[in-house]
Specification:
Strand 2 and strand 3 form a beta hairpin. The chain has 211 residues and is an alpha+beta fold. It has a four-stranded mixed beta sheet, with no helix packed on it. The two termini are 28 Å apart. The relative contact order is 0.10.
């Protein structure tokens, strides 16, 4: 279940049943300086109720569930910013990230699973084309084709563009992904850059036609 609190806060409430014990997970964009790199950081019931009290029309039924959660049963999953990853695989292509471990999404987008399926289809197609003798090359081509996945059939796209992407990687022959918004040109960025311009009186310019 998801509730939108403000433009800066997005709440996800997870109910996880494990050996008959109720676990509840909160994921919030709110930054109060308590971010910890942990999947098991707990929160107090009172803190959770204080948080939900600020959400319009938050179901009272869910507050009752929170109140009955056992001690250490509320998990506080902080959402933190990360720079885009330049590569998703190990040097030899034996280990690769798929889904939202490669493409960063807010959990509320519900897009991580979709990207994992598309990545799997793209990767298996590239491996099929390359054969067992060129697994690293297949992984590199997959990464190139999926860097900007916007609107496409992942399998067809891999079949149509594998050769062109491979020649680009081997010989630097020009190659441009077609699965991008019209007139869009990708420009590398970092979180630090975004933070450096935060609050400046200027509009954010987005290249391309995203309509």
């Amino acid at each position: 279940m998801t509730w939108n609190l403000t433009h800066k806060v997005d709440l996800l409430l997870y109910q996880i049943y494990f050996y008959s014990l109720l676990k509840i997970g909160f994921s919030s964009l709110q930054d109060i300086g308590s971010v910890a790199e942990s999947w098991g950081q707990t929160a107090e019931i009172e803190d959770a109720l204080s948080f939900t009290a600020r959400i319009p029309d938050f179901p009272e039924m869910m507050n009752r569930v929170i109140k009955t959660t056992p001690n250490d049963g509320i998990i506080d999953w902080k959402m933190v910013w990360r720079d885009p990853q330049m590569t998703w695989s190990s040097p030899e292509g034996r280990v690769i990230q798929l889904g939202d471990s490669a493409h960063t999404f807010l959990p509320s987008s519900g897009n991580g699973g979709t990207q994992a399926v598309e990545d799997a289809i793209s990767l298996t197609t590239c491996l099929q084309i390359a054969g067992k003798s060129n697994i690293p090359g297949a992984v590199e081509v997959h990464h190139k084709l999926r860097q900007m996945a916007w609107q496409h059939d992942a399998e067809d796209y891999a079949y149509e563009n594998y050769g062109k992407a491979l020649r680009h990687l081997l010989t630097d022959e020009p190659f441009q992904n077609t699965d991008i918004p019209p007139r869009y040109i990708y420009k590398p960025w970092s979180i630090q850059e975004l933070l450096s311009i935060e609050g400046e009186p200027k509009d954010v310019e987005v290249d391309g036609d995203w309509s």
